[in-house]
Amino acid sequence: MAQNRFLPYIALAVGISALSLSAMFVRWADAPGPITGFYRVLISTFLLAPLFIRQQRQLEPIDKKYLIFPLLGGLFTAFDFAFWNSSLKYTTAANATLLGNTSPLWVALFALFVFREKLRKIFWLGLVLSLTGAALVMGSDFLSHPTLGLGDLMASTAAIFYAFYQLATQRGRKYIDPFRYTWIVSVVATLGLFIMNIVLGNSFTGYSSQTWL
After folding, report:
1. 131: number of CA atoms within 13 Å, CB side?
2. Containing H/E element for 213?
3. Is 26 helix (H, G, I), strand (E, B) or coil?
4. C-alpha to C-alpha distance for 92 and 173, rounded to whole angstroms
5. Which of 10, 90, 195, 197 has the most C-beta neighbours closer than 10 Å?
């Protein structure tokens, strides 16, 4: 029982570590942002496919009218990866990470003005503290490049798409279990990024061994 109690915290620590290192890995990759995003979701989709098949056999079929939520979530994820990965080619990792993680702000504004949801003061306080903390952690690098350029605009756009993903997921999770929802999102994101790379004329092969790693 004690071990199970600590599993969520271990998963959280691993997730935070992966998120912290993702900017460096994408920057080291000598490939366009949409390409690195494509292979990122493609690999995870294949790895999770056997588990999805097992879940699909054990659980009730998904009501088709609710598939709109993971479909939109996957589309938003594709644009999120494309813009954020591309932003690292034009701005610092600190700027991209800070601006790319402003999605809670956009979620709050969208919920407030579109869904007319009343958010408690404690939420706004927590949001301000979290954004301030992130800015302080990355402050020196961020302040050394205070002018917002193309990369910063891309990172901010990625945050908006991620906010849309969160909003779609908030509603979709009421009707679809977490694992199957995530896998459908991954499939749609993979297809979306594939089409995006075709349209942009990006090559899927011919990259260095460092990029593949």
Report:
1. 14
2. none
3. helix
4. 34
5. 197
What are the φ/ψ torsions at residue 144 (nearest 5 degrees)? -75, -15
In angstroms, the CA 206 to CA 94 distance is 29
CA distances to 41, 48, 93, 197 from 143, rounded to whole Å, are 32, 40, 13, 33
pLDDT tens string 78-97:
999 999 999 988 888 878 88
Tokens 């749609």 correspond to what residue? 188
Query: H helices of the chain, where?
Result: 2-28, 33-58, 68-87, 93-100, 103-113, 121-137, 139-143, 150-172, 178-200, 209-212
Most distant pair of Cα atoms in the chain: their distance:
54
Residue 29, C-beta contacts closer than 8 angstroms, at least 6 positions apart: 36, 207, 210, 211
